[in-house]
Amino acid sequence: MNTLHQYVRLEDHLEHQSLAQGTVSVLITHSNLRQEWPEIRVDLHTTVGALKDRLYRHGGTGAGFQKLLLRTVEGEVLCEMNDDNRMLGFFGVSSGMNIHIIDIDPYSFSKDGGLENVDLVQKYIMSDEDYERRDNSLRNYKLKMKAKDPYWTFLAENRREPKNLNPPGPEDVEKFNIGDRCEVQPGARRGVLCWKGPGEDYGIGNGYWVGVRLDEPLGKNNGVAKSGKKLFECPDKHGTFVRPENVEAGDFPEKDIFDELSSDEDEL
Question: d(Cα 58, Cα 103) in Å, to the nearest integer?
């Protein structure tokens, strides 16, 4: 870090050598503001009055309410620049010095953080009555979505499946046997049936569900339900819980990727 610091500061002593003759670079500070304006270039033939007019655009203090102090970088006051008709060179201004503005306006906008403290800015607060009258508000949008789905939330991961008015019952999964080969829709994903039962007990959804260990990582879990209960063993992304109508048990062997290759592709 010391080496980096030395590299960055390597040419600091040359920063003022590129200035035109009669021009200096100074730091401008303000009594009411935390903001500073470094490396402001000024001509030594500029009068104090002209400088005050220029500084008005920086700090917002009118020229008639500015008291200028010439200070060293360390903050030591050298003199007060109290003659508006004198040129800066008369006061011995040189590069690296600090011209400090003291705002003597008792009604200054910058006083007590008036130009920098955003907490002093009065915020607009809408009344509940005005907000209720807005058709495109988040509150009305939420009410509309809740009317369609009582479990709807703004965060998708917190949404629950809406209640199925005619959920699958135990008779719908009775035809399945644990260990059956099966195919799951959508996607014709193949696997082994590993679990069947009421989903509401495990945060899956109301009615009866089927748990399948897929041959390929095309699922959403590893056999763990939303409740945190592990219902069957399988690798990550190989497990899925589906409605029984989306599962077909039968002779569904694991797919062989070479079966999908043409005879030309099968030969090198």
Answer: 13
3-state secondary structure of 18: coil
Contacts (Cβ under 8 Å, ≥6 apart) of 124? none
CA distances from 210 to 114, 176, 200, 218, 244 (A): 66, 9, 12, 16, 6
CA angle centred on 67, ends 61 and 70, rounded to 5°: 120
Beta bridge partners of 221: 239
- Write out the H or E segment, with its range, that includes residue 80: strand 77-80
Nearest Cα to Cα of residue 61 among 121, 116, 120, 106:
106
Cα angle value 222/227/233 (rounded, 5°): 25
Contact 173, 212 (CB under 8 A): no
Question: What is the per-residue pLDDT across 208-266, written as a single tens digit (0 to 9) for each?
Answer: 999 999 999 999 999 999 999 999 999 999 999 999 999 999 999 988 755 554 444 43
SS3 50: helix
How many Cα atoms are found within 13 Å in the side-chain-facing hemisphere of 10?
Answer: 4
Sign of the C-alpha dihedral computed for residues 81, 84, 90 and 96 taken in this order = positive
Domains along the sequence of the chain with CATH: 15-113 (3.10.20.90), 170-249 (2.30.30.190)
Measured at the alpha carbon of residue 56, what is the angle toward residues 55 and 62, in degrees to the nearest 5?
A: 130
The amino acid present at 183, given as its one-letter code, is E
pTM: 0.44
23-30 vs 98-103, strand pairing mode: parallel
- Distances in whole angstroms, Cα of residue 41 to Cα of each of 14, 38, 48, 99, 215: 16, 9, 14, 12, 73
Contact (Cβ atoms closer than 8 angstroms) between residue 187 and residue 216:
no
pLDDT tens-digit readout, 3-28: 775 655 555 555 666 788 899 999 99
